[in-house]
Amino acid sequence: MSKIGVVGAGAWGTALAHAWSQAENSVTLLARTEKAAKVIRETGMNEAYLPGIALSASLQTTANPSALSSCDHIALVTPAQTIGEVFEKVSLHIPPTSQIILCSKGINKQSALTPWGILGKVVDQTRLAVLSGPSFASDVARELPTAITLAMENIADAEKLSAELSTPTLRLYASDDTIGVELGGALKNVIALAVGMARGLNLGASAEAALIARGFVEMQATIVGQGGEAQTVSGLSGLGDLVLTCSSPQSRNFAYGQAFVTRSLTDNQPLAEGVHTAQRALHSARQAGMEAPIMEAVVKVLDSVWTPQEAMQNLLARPLKREH
Ligand SMILES: NC(=O)C1=CN([C@@H]2O[C@H](COP(=O)(O)OP(=O)(O)OC[C@H]3O[C@@H](n4cnc5c(N)ncnc54)[C@H](O)[C@@H]3O)[C@@H](O)[C@H]2O)C=CC1
Ligand SMILES: O=C(CO)COP(=O)(O)O
């Protein structure tokens, strides 16, 4: 049995906390406010983020970060743009020997750093882990079969932690490619926006498949250029998550792309990490020597430089070239 603290009581934090708690770990879920924590405690549900799912009875929910002080592992599960400030708020309460599991999928707009890049400046990197892969929060919370990747610098540490955090339905595969695993999760969100836009434009299933395959090429070149491994991009945290996120409006990034082009975004549109990451993702691709026309199209459409129709015309008008 492990003692796990989960920071962030949104969809993913609540799903992970519930799954780990069901697997007989001692789990504390840290909500942003006492009001949010109280609702979860009193109803046994997180109706705002995981409607209809009864949470594990043994899950402890609080807004007091001192509850983290006895945890062996701390999962940080807030949006990528908030990781630095969130860690600052809780760091005093995190035991110096605990492992820190980064679960956000994005790149910081200001610093161009991933969560690993941000935390790696203030914490010994051997304590850090990245958890990423195809996993809708509601699937994990309903204990449907899921397989994702956990990466640490040291593969033996990754194997040990993966074994500790796997449950009968949530399988964690170990990796030491921290760059590849983390960037896969960030970049697939940008491609999912493009595929959502294609769905919104009614371009058809063939166009969506082409965007996924060519988007994969952009991801692979970017990740390898940034020091990740090609094999990782073909795995759960790359191809696996790309396929999941690009094939269903259940993905918030896909849904955002679709709503963007159909002008149906709402005031309380759920989090779409790709929107905040797209510009930095394109920059990383360019640094890696990739033209990345799909990422470029997403950035230009989001910035209203191109209309979605112009983006599509520009992609189709690109010179023909060899596939590889
Ligand atoms: N929902 C999913 O299926 C999955 C999400 N992820 C990733 O996990 C991360 C979190 O996503 P979700 O939980 O789904 O988002 P969410 O929007 O459901 O919840 C975000 C949570 O973070 C909290 N939060 C936001 N800003 C904060 C701040 N400044 N300080 C403290 N708390 C703050 C919110 O109160 C909320 O509880 C994202 O990077 C996402 O890409 C990864 C895998 C699956
Ligand atoms: O990362 C996810 C599934 O692996 C969730 O994707 P969305 O954030 O697009 O919903």
From TrEMBL:
It comes from the Bacteria. Its main location: cytoplasm. Keywords: Cytoplasm, Lipid biosynthesis, Lipid metabolism, NAD, NADP, Nucleotide-binding, Oxidoreductase, Phospholipid biosynthesis, Phospholipid metabolism. InterPro entries: 6-PGluconate_DH-like_C_sf (IPR008927), 6PGD_dom2 (IPR013328), G3P_DH_NAD-dep (IPR006168), G3P_DH_NAD-dep_C (IPR006109), G3P_DH_NAD-dep_N (IPR011128), NAD(P)-bd_dom_sf (IPR036291). The keyword Methyltransferase does not apply. NADPH binds at W12, R32, Y49, K105, A137, R252, L271, E273. The active site is at K188. Residues 177-313 form the Glycerol-3-phosphate dehydrogenase NAD-dependent C-terminal domain. It catalyses: sn-glycerol 3-phosphate + NADP(+) = dihydroxyacetone phosphate + NADPH + H(+); sn-glycerol 3-phosphate + NAD(+) = dihydroxyacetone phosphate + NADH + H(+). NCBIfam families: PRK00094.1-2, PRK00094.1-4. This is Glycerol-3-phosphate dehydrogenase [NAD(P)+]. It comes from Pseudahrensia aquimaris. The gene is gpsA.
